[in-house]
TrEMBL record:
<feature type="domain" description="SpoVT-AbrB">
    <location>
        <begin position="1"/>
        <end position="47"/>
    </location>
</feature>
<keyword id="KW-0238">DNA-binding</keyword>
<dbReference type="Pfam" id="PF04014">
    <property type="entry name" value="MazE_antitoxin"/>
</dbReference>
<dbReference type="InterPro" id="IPR037914">
    <property type="entry name" value="SpoVT-AbrB_sf"/>
</dbReference>
<dbReference type="GO" id="GO:0003677">
    <property type="term" value="F:DNA binding"/>
</dbReference>
<protein>
    <submittedName>
        <fullName>AbrB family transcriptional regulator</fullName>
    </submittedName>
</protein>
<dbReference type="InterPro" id="IPR007159">
    <property type="entry name" value="SpoVT-AbrB_dom"/>
</dbReference>
Amino acid sequence: MAIGTVTSKGQVTIPKEIRDYLKIDTGSQVDFVIDGDGTVVLLPRRIESSDISGMMHRPGKAAMALEEIDEQILEVVSAEQPT
């Protein structure tokens, strides 16, 4: 069993073995969930695609279709290849 310590600011240090197991690093967000029986569960927060949807949108610029994105990637990669 791993033990964490609560600081005077209410912060908890998550033991390294738990951070490694959950694959969380500095700056990672976690959710604390209270189950029906009172058990508290710590879950790593994973980014959902809906959380970042629209982040790359540039006003006045039309969205690109996946095919267009693939074509541009191919052009850039081809241009970088020595002939």
